[in-house]
Amino acid sequence: MNVWVNDAIIKSALAEGEERGGGGSAAVARSESNLSTKSLSFDGGLSSRTATWVWVESVILSGSAQGLFAQSPRSRTTTTNSTSSSSPRGQTDNNNDDVLTIRVTDAESEHEGKVIEISRRHIVTTTATAGGSRSSSGSILPANTTNSDIDLPSDLTQLTHLHEPAVVDCLHRRYKLSGWKMYTSSGPILIAINPCRDVPGLYDENSMRTYWRWGERLANGVGVAATATTAGDANDMSVATMAQQQQPPPHVFGVADSAYRGMMRGLDFCRISMEEEKKDSEDISGIVANQSVLVSGESGAGKTVTTKFIMQYLAALSKKVDSDHIITGGGGGSETKSSIEQRVLQSNAILEAFGNARTLRNDNSSRFGKFIELRFSDRGRLMGASIDTYLLEKARIVGHTCGERTYHIFYEVLAKGSLTATERNNFFINNTSASDFAITTSDGGKNRSKLLHNGYEDHAQMFGELRTAMNTMGFRRPEQMELFQAVCGLLHLSNLTLQGAFVETNDGEECLLNKDSPSLEPALRLLGVSYEALNAAVTTVQFKAVGELVKKNLNATQAVRAVQALIKGVYDSIFSLLVDRINSCIVGSSSDDEAMAGGAFIGLLDIFGFESFETNSFNQLMINFCNESLQQQFNRFVFKLEQQEYRREGIKWDMIEFEDNQDILDLIEKKHGGLLAVLDEQCKLGMRCNDKTFASALYKKCMSTSDRFDACKKQQSQGKFSIHHYAGIVEYDTAGFMEKNKDEIPMEASELFSNSSCTFIQNVALVISCKTNGNQKESKRQALKSSISRVSVGGQFSSQLQKLRRRIDETQPHYVRCLKPNDQLQPGHFDPNIVVDQLRCGGILEAIRVSRAGFPHRYAFDHFDSRFGILSSALCSSETKLQRPPPRRVGKLNLGNRGTSAKRKVVAPKKQRADPKKSCEVLVKVIARWILAEREKHKEIDDADEQDDALSPRSFWKSKSPQKPQRSIHRQLDTSEAGIQLGATKVFLLQDTFDCIERVRGQVLAANATKISSLVRMFVARRAYIVILRAYREAMSRRVSRGGGTNPVAPLVESKSEDSVLRNVDINLGIFESKSSFEQANSLLKPEPQEFEWVSIGHGRFVKRELSQQLEPDYVSHEFDADDYVDL
């Protein structure tokens, strides 16, 4: 039997064997203490991931495994006491069951190949809890056995034994396979391990085609296109028939397709409900058309790339839907839609250039968060998009640590080959490099990054992609040049923060800009400002005191800070302008407003991951606060709301415990007493407060109110504190908190740049003015108004997160958890310590347990009956038919306006709405019986195949015994065994059950559509043939009568079809009449014999003309009225 053994147990067993003489007990005790600290405690600091993976794969050679994996604390104590009381002290029990002999088979363990004997008294067994067994707390856990890596489950919920070592082992083995196996699903969550390299064929058009074809088959029925089925064949459909096409492996394209299909299902139901019941879409409860895909993970896990692939798939799917719409006559406009899709994709290149940078853990780290809203029409075409950004890291513009870089755009404009020689001369960057400017050079030291830097080094190529994206987005060349001019102006302006940029006056209390600085003149010309205006903006500050304007001069140190604040404010405004310009390009045309009115959207969230470095400041606190908020939303969706709804609906469910982080959010954002509230209060007090006073106030407020906050004496002396986040303990340094939260922007900056000679810089001034003016309105009640605007970054970001969570709560979320295999982003290297740390941080194990037993699909009774009610006739047998009311007799249905009259108009009876819960109850039982019957059928087939050919007579007759089906017949039906349960207001389905009945529904719809089409085609052809045959019979009759024959040809009497769909159809008027029989119709008409003949008047029309000679009474066809005519 294969097992996972804790490494501390192995070490204790080896130590006991070596020191069995005297110090064995001490060695065992020492090993057990190590076990408790290693396996049960977890240091979440991402900067020090050590001793987190302690599991070794082994095989049991001898000894009993009974009671080894699941034992309650009480029974374990009883067993221990009884053993100790029955055995003499100091003697060892020689029973083989008390000794477990294992052989280590883990190739990565230092003990590989060793045979070790482990005493049972040293094994810590798994302790059962209310929410299920905490698998990772035992010292020996069962391992999953698979014949080969090919048999590895693609869904972690399918693991036989579900615990931490089994999950990590499955991910490790799938990662080795690479290619299509790099993705693994865990219920509704997709786990994406970064391959750290390009994987050929994984994201090309063929891969996209595989998943959108599977999505279409899932909606329309598997194999429908290949083999046409009839309605009668639906009763014989089996699970094997529906699964003839293998489901593609987990992929990010599969998540995107699932979101798209879910949106279309929601739109279909909303449209049907509005048409039939005249309801507004807002009044439909439980039906969500809007979708969201939340991509999360640490820095370097691949979130940005994953988001781009999702956008590419949705854009390609929209193109496919748009082309199908045009082919079927939906209209033109393909070029407009195509350009919108291209613009949406090309917007990534612009945002990455201005918002991404290199960090110690990622070469292309997004230093801002974004929520991309892709809006679709009611037919599934991409009509437009919008982008919301969150918390751009402005501190990176003016400073970054060794081994990191500022934003890509600065290095791209400086790269050789990016700009022409003339453009470089105009921007004053000829013969310069990144080392010549302050913001592109880190503070000394060598590159400490351990990344391989396998990309993002060719800045000239990246700049070319940026120019291409701008051309696609509609940026004119003068606009691009003004943008690059502003970027180069910031490069030169940053050098004014270096030593010698200011000349001190008045004994160092005042300063002036040094006119001899080589970067001063280029900065003035590129920004389009004068020396006097810039000098006044960065060397003086103005504020109002008691209604009077007071001016204060700044020293050189304060002036350098003012320049840095000016650079951050300008760059932040440039980024805001770019986002607004991108939104104006991808919002869609005004002609598409009507199409978007009835549509929905798919939101994509790409936001920064959890961060913890050696020095963590205000930016890391905001980033981790965002991750805490998103983790809370994830907990609410996966744990809280799910389990509460199961309990409320009365679903069979075992509650699962999980760690709630609501207290951490209260610690940070609570209005009175939270960390951000204390910080804002200190910022409002102005000059009297600084970082030290903030730290003191924080210790007084939070030390006694929250267990998540901690600060020892040493930390308090250094102005530091720690927060126990969901991902671990992170230590923060309060230095710079006040300055970063206020986000000081000189009020003179807007006036400075509003007079610029550059149009783009004037637009930047407008953005700065909007921010400062808004803050002035909020601070009217203050007696002291400073020219330094007080913008509470923490409060603003908190409100943004609340809005984001409300938007996500209104959608159906889909989750993608990105993991990185190692900190160096080295391809092919899987570090269990890194992976297990990320799994613990994201709560993946608890989510897998919920997903394993949860119901991801749920329908209100009305929705379930309207969507799957057609399965009743296809799935139930004759003795289990649904007890539905008899079908109504079809009245006269007017399908056209031609030839209608008042006497033909029949008002349909008012629809009587049945109880939807009773209908769903019967339908659920039918579906459950069919699924269980199919499962039992295939189980018997598999069992028969596994039996040996030579059976004993007793075994043969035992297998043929009729008692087994008799017991299953009388057993009460349990719908939960089929993966479907009926709640108080909804129907809940497992994923496999939902996929199964969706396939059957698609097949039934296709079969019914085929039958209707065949009947209509048959009717049209039959009517055409009857007209021709009637004309032939009439002509033959006239010829015989004129020739004096005595036996004229019998006239054609059209026989009526017994099919209820084709009863007495008049194709000219498009009217279906309900007649029980041909005789009943003729009795109502009561025609009288007349002398006439049918005469053709062309174009397939015939009229009647009276004859001079007398005809036989049976000559006249009683089927036609005197006023009828035939028109093809």
Question: In summary, what is this structure?
Answer:
By secondary structure, the protein is of the alpha+beta class. The protein is built from 36 helices and 30 strands. The longest helix has 52 residues.
Spatial extent as radius of gyration:
39 Å
Structural class: alpha+beta
pLDDT averaged over residues: 74
In the predicted model, the low-confidence regions spanning at least 5 consecutive residues are 22-51, 70-96, 125-137, 223-244, 278-285, 327-338, 444-448, 775-789, 877-906, 949-970, 1056-1087, 1109-1128
Q: Count the DSSP helices.
A: 36
The main β sheet shows up as: 7 strands, mixed
Helix content: 40-55%
- What's the shape? globular
Q: Largest sheet, order of strands side by side?
A: 6-7-22-8-17-11-12
The fraction of residues assigned to DSSP E strands is 5-15%
| Separation of the first and last Cα atoms | 78 Å
Query: What is the strand tally?
Result: 30
